[in-house]
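Folding Query — how this chain folds
Tokens — whole-number codes for backbone shape
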Amino acid sequence: MKFEKFIEKLQHEGKSELTLRQYRSSWNRFVKWFDGEDAEQATQLDIARFKRTMLENLSPSTVKQTLLHVRAFFSYLTEQGDAPDNPVENVDAVTVARTTPKWLNKNEQNAVIRAIRRYGDIKELTIFTLLLHTGLRVQELCDVKLTDITLTDRKGNLVVRKGKHNRRREVPLNVDSRRVLEQYLSSRNSESEYLFDSQRSPQMTTRAVQHIIEKYRKLTGIENLTAHALRHSFCHELVSKKIPLDVVARLAGHMKANGTPNIEMTLVYTQPSHEDLERAVEELSWT
């Protein structure tokens, strides 16, 4: 099937499993709307009608992503000579207002750590500490091997060997990360080469990590406690402390194809949070 060949191409390009699932979901959404006919023969008018239908039922961000994925597949068909042109090419893109990423403030971070100390163990504490203090993506965390970590009395380093787009980067470990890692490693009873394993596998899965995070979301009542929020917290904290944006970009793995920091991606963390806006208007209060 042509779409499966397209997915194989994306795999070779280093796309993550999550990204591949999103491409499948987008194409399946279009095929379902096309009502079982040969969706690969769609015209520009078909795409425009599909877009209007989605806008009536889905969020603008979902519509935008779906069209981007469908457009990529039709570009592939065109390159392979299986389609005369790309019917998505001239359909107007969906404008999505940029939203501020959700991050945890210091009180929320402290509440999570308190909950882990009460209900969790050193493994869960290490997972949360690393996500908060290194900004790793969940897949990157699961891929960390023991040999990727270097610890000394005053320094520490973690190597991300296969980040987004297969990019390698090094993240220094601060004193909090080093302390919890030393405790975890001294109590660890596993022969796995990976830093985190599970009862069923030598390597912990992203779903297992997300399940742990969900556990503490319920325990703390912090609605925006997600893996993304922990990563966003890392970036926001650095920006708030006036760390240069190119440094934050390198630490977070925000890099361009040419290997230079993608500051544009990091700029989003300079935007005010909802709490910042609330404090601003409270300055006008008469009481």
The mean pLDDT is 91.
